[in-house]
Amino acid sequence: MSDRTEETNVPEIEVRGLYKSFGDNEVLRGIDLEIGQGEVVCVIGPSGSGKSTLLRCVNLLEEPTKGQVFVGGTEVTHPDVDIDEVRRRIGMVFQQFNLFPHLTVTENLTLPQRRVLKRDKAEAAKVAAENLARVGLSEKADAYPSSLSGGQQQRVAIARALAMGPEVMLFDEPTSALDPELVGDVLAVMRRLANEGMTMMVVTHEMTFAREVADRVVFMDGGVIVEDGTPEQVITDPAHERTRHFLSRLLDPAMADVEEGEAPQEQPKGLPN
Amino acid sequence: MLSQGAQYALFVAVVVAFAASADWARLKNQFAQMDLAKQMFPDIITLALKNTVLYTLSGFVFGLVLGMVIALMRLSPVGPYRWVAGIYIEIFRGLPALLIFIFVGVAVPLAFPGTEIPGGTYGKVALALGLVSAAYMAETIRAGIQAVPKGQMEAARSLGFSHARAMVSIIVPQAFRIVIPPLTNELVLLFKDSSLVLFLGVTLEERELAKYGRDLASQTANSTPILVAGLCYLLVTVPLGFVVRRLETKAGEATR
Question: Which chain A residues are Cβ-neighbours of B169 within 8 angstroms?
Fold first, then answer.
């Protein structure tokens, strides 16, 4: 990459002065964030805090209203950027998996490699097999997504992103749509990925995962970053009242709701599984 | 309200009253001359039905290609594409198919003297039927594309697919499964609309069911050929309708 200088000193993800509005609704209000190479950062916060929007701005699934985003030294928000080229270096995993239902598991992994990276059939198949093995689903290679459990689908989605050889992985609430007993397998895959040194930005409600795996935890509320530090600083010993309140709600939502006098259904995404 | 039994009784009474009051002898004389009907075979199948099928298929293929292009234009992020596609759909859905046939038969040769539409009558019919059906199929295909969940496009884009490539590789293949039943319905409509070839002026060998039946009816001063032609239409449209219902059931099961 001609525009990527001094690999080791450039943060893998850099967000500067990021604003995002949907109509009159200002969702992000000045976000500054750096994620170093190999760093695992968990973004937590109540629903509507803008954490998913921030993640989606990193690979430009949402177009920021103002501000800059850099990935691997390339300015994603630059008007002349080849966004398709940049996205090849950014893997993304969605809450709803978004596997291609008309393709088998293997085809889900090979089609993007062949169409986007122009790999030949044999190489694409080899990379697909490697990555399916990585998430422990080699035996499902010929299955269709609809025949898999949610946890298996999400692991295939991770393998699909990995097959493109990304430098960064973005996770948008990867376990929120899963039945509780299926969450563990997906988190185990993510944990292994983190240990292998992948740069990861994870929007999640899994506090145990954040505490054990993350290098840093970022707490967002109301479209700003309230707190940014180690898991111990943010989760165990939060400095801000808003963080404390969010965490107490997460640990005992019924109590928090009673205290607040709120209807529980107002923020269903804030409930832990 | 009448009970269900009373409703059936009333229905039967009405049918019987009509049947009893109709002049069956005259009707039979005019519409069901068996020897005349026998004379029509095998020509009505080998010539007329064959031509109807050819006209329908050529129109369908042209309409499908054009409809696909218009659907993608309708969904394009580029404004002018959307407007052109929108205007096309409004015009060609709003005009009777008959007028399109007359336009293609008269205006196109006038406007481009010396140039022949390739394929002769077949080309003209493909053009006229295609122009009409493209407007309907474009709307069907657009609805099919929009029925594919938004996450599919997002997943494809985040893997590095361009918008166009994602459409072709990921979205359209899924959309087509959704739109196969309505497109088959469109095929049935086209099959019937191919009778408008009547207004293009065709040679004896190019006649399709409606024209063939009408010509023979006026030659023999008897309407039996019309009835036989009608039965030939049903021979195709009824099974096709059955196929559509089967496909719809299957599609319904697949989305569950």
Answer: 111, 115
Q: Degrees (nearest 5) of the Cα angle B70, B53, B40?
A: 155
Do the Cβ atoms of B209 and B50 come closer than 8 Å?
A: no
Q: What pLDDT does residue A151 have? A: 95
pLDDT for residue A20 is more than 90: yes
CB pairs under 8 A between A and B: 59
| Distances in whole angstroms, Cα of residue B250 to Cα of each of A21, B149, B181, B255 | 42, 19, 10, 9
Asked if A162 and A112 touch (Cβ cutoff 8 Å), the reply is no
User: Is A61's CB within 8 Å of B158's CB?
Assistant: yes
- Pick B158's closest partner by Cβ from A92, A102, A111: A92
Which pair of tokens denotes residue A249? 């709600």
To 10 degrees, the CA torsion angle through A132, A135, A138, A140?
A: -100
What's the one-letter identity of residue A164? Answer: M
Whether pLDDT at A6 is above 60: no
Residue-wise pLDDT for A145-166, tens only, equals 999 999 999 999 999 999 999 9
Strand order in the sheet with A168-172: A90-93, A168-172, A199-203, A40-44, A216-221, A224-229
The share of chain A scoring above pLDDT 90, in percent, equals 86
Strand partners, A69: A15
Q: Would strands A168-172 and A90-93 be described as parallel, antiparallel, or unpaired?
A: parallel
DSSP state for residue B115 in the 8-state scheme: P
Report ipTM (2 d.p.).
0.87
Q: How far apart are CA A85 and CA A163, in angstroms?
A: 15
Residue A115 CA to residue A120 CA, distance in Å, equals 10
Task: Determine, for residues A102 and B157 on separate chains, whether the beta-carbon distance falls below 8 Å.
Answer: no
Is A197 in contact with A38 (CB distance < 8 Å)?
Answer: yes
Interface contact B159-A164, CB threshold 8 A: yes
Residue B173, Cα to own-chain centre: how many angstroms? 23
Q: How far apart are CA B43 and CA B37, in angstroms?
A: 11
What is the distance between the terminal CA atoms of chain A, rounded to a whole angstrom?
Answer: 42
